[in-house]
């Protein structure tokens, strides 16, 4: 009897030990890879299966074991895997991750529509791309400012060649990133995104090929002046007249005196008044103290601004100012006339 009882207890002990081992193993393999939140973006295609996805998750360091995930999935009756892009947190347990894949609402479409707005800076575009894709804004901006990378693009986009010889540019591709509405893959690369945008700029520049050939400006100079015109103007007509004002100033060796170049020199500012208060800032982009064009574009211009520089109005205007309440622009031939416009349309709002 004692032997039978001992044997019974022995089996119970073994069973408890096995259960303990199973529990500890399950807990160890199931728990998250990290204790703090760490989001990974996973693209699931129509060719994927839970087997391929689990292997990818293990390779990316999102789960501890693909084999363990596949073992758990054996007990799952519905193994439907929805196509799309998932955001998975490496702090989640494997069972939580499987449950996340179960909900089709978590499968985001792989293509995103992003509008890069007229007037936007390269850093603004990078931020928008960073919000909607798997890319990091800082890495995008660093790449757009990398001389070696730009050099690798020149063969495909020869209009970038001039950028390589210039100093003082804040972002080398500033001005060449054409503002438009694009469709990008949510899981993409900086190179693919950059080529998509530059392909658009190449089409725009090609549409003006003959006019650029006959122009007094190089492509870089054209985009530089167009960026200022785009920034200052608010209609096609105003852009043409503003372009003419700046060209008239260049012709008589007069500084451009554009406050938008001060805004770009500052990089961060709270209002247009701050730009106008800093017209003595020590920067090569300061067109109040430096003659000619700044080192490069101060934003990314659209075709209207480019065309305005290539086909400006023919006037004797040397000055302009915008009514800060209505946006209407007033032009002047003399400084005295300009000052009257400033006193009337700007000074009351300073």
TrEMBL record:
It catalyses: a peptidoglycan chain = a peptidoglycan chain with N-acetyl-1,6-anhydromuramyl-[peptide] at the reducing end + a peptidoglycan chain with N-acetylglucosamine at the non-reducing end. The record marks 232 as: Important for catalytic activity. One of its GO terms (cellular component) is plasma membrane. Gene3D superfamilies: Classic Zinc Finger, Endolytic murein transglycosylase. Its EC number is 4.2.2.29. Functions as a peptidoglycan terminase that cleaves nascent peptidoglycan strands endolytically to terminate their elongation. This is Endolytic murein transglycosylase. It comes from Erysipelothrix larvae. The gene is mltG.
